[in-house]
Each structure stands twice: as structure tokens, then as C-alpha cells.
Design goal:
Blueprint (H helix, E strand, L loop, with lengths): L2 E5 L2 E4 L4 E8 L6 E8 L6 E7 L5 E3 L7 E6 L4 E6 L8 E9 L6 E3 L5 E3 L6 E2 L3 E6 L1
Parallel strand pairs: 2-13
Antiparallel strand pairs: 1-3, 3-8, 4-5, 4-9, 5-6, 7-8, 9-12, 9-13, 10-11
Length: 135
């Protein structure tokens, strides 16, 4: 049985940092894509970052590039999201999700011809951890 358990959420001031953890069980780390999503009430779910466990390749949403870092500890089957310089617009419920490696290969072409990650849907989800950033 696949299970994802998030932790590390909390309430912070703008400019501060938080580190989220996602412990994965029942899903081998090899050839797996693990991602973080967030959702604010009344808004659509947004993909934040994803990591391909086989080689550690990561992608980020434009809104968090340079501030968030996704990483993994395959021995602990845990994925982390280090969030620095938090902003009020980062407030939301943060969810960890996992699926096969194909989920890390979804991209779309931008007007300039560069590849932009498409997070899409994932097969397994955690219950979420709340992040609140006040100004």
C-alpha cells in the first residue's frame, strides 16, 4: 500500500524559511517521480517542484525558482522541499505526490522553444501540510 506522509508545515513571517518532508512507503524510490503541489482555498492546485529519484533531476514552477529546493534521501525514501524567502503568496496546503518516472518527463514548449515542465496529475497523494506566510 502506497503511503505519503508530509510534515514540516507551519506559520512564518515573510522572508523566513520552512522545510517540508515527505516520507514515502510502499513505493520503491527507483524510477519514481515525486512532486510537491500546493493549493489555496478557491484556487487551482499548482505544481511547485518535482524530482526524478533515479538521477535527482528536478524542475520548478517559475513562481518558486531560486527560492525553493527539492531534494531526496533515497535511503530514507524521503523527499524534502526547502522553502526560503517565503512570501504571503506561498500560503497554502502543500501536498506530496508520487508516480512513475513518466510524470517527471511531461513538458510543453514555450514560445521561445524552451521546454517548460508540466506537472499534470499524479497517482498517489499525501494528506497535506499547511503553510501560512504572513506579511
Amino acid at each position: 500500500q502506497v503511503k505519503l506522509v508530509e510534515s514540516g508545515g507551519g506559520s512564518v513571517q515573510a522572508g523566513e524559511s520552512l522545510r517540508l518532508s515527505c516520507r514515502v512507503s510502499g513505493y520503491p524510490s527507483g524510477n519514481r517521480c515525486t512532486a510537491w503541489f500546493r493549493q489555496y482555498p478557491g484556487k487551482a492546485r499548482e505544481g511547485v517542484a518535482r524530482i526524478y529519484t533515479t538521477n535527482g533531476h528536478s524542475d520548478y514552477a517559475d513562481s518558486v525558482k531560486g527560492r525553493f529546493t527539492i531534494s531526496q534521501d533515497n535511503t530514507e525514501n524521503t523527499v524534502y522541499l526547502q522553502m526560503d524567502n517565503l512570501k504571503p503568496e506561498d500560503t497554502g496546503m502543500y501536498y506530496c505526490a508520487a508516480d512513475g518516472e513518466f510524470a517527471c518527463f511531461r513538458v510543453t514548449a514555450t514560445d521561445t522553444g524552451l521546454a517548460k515542465p508540466v506537472f499534470g496529475d499524479f497517482g498517489a497523494w499525501g494528506q497535506g501540510t499547511q503553510v501560512t506566510v504572513s506579511s
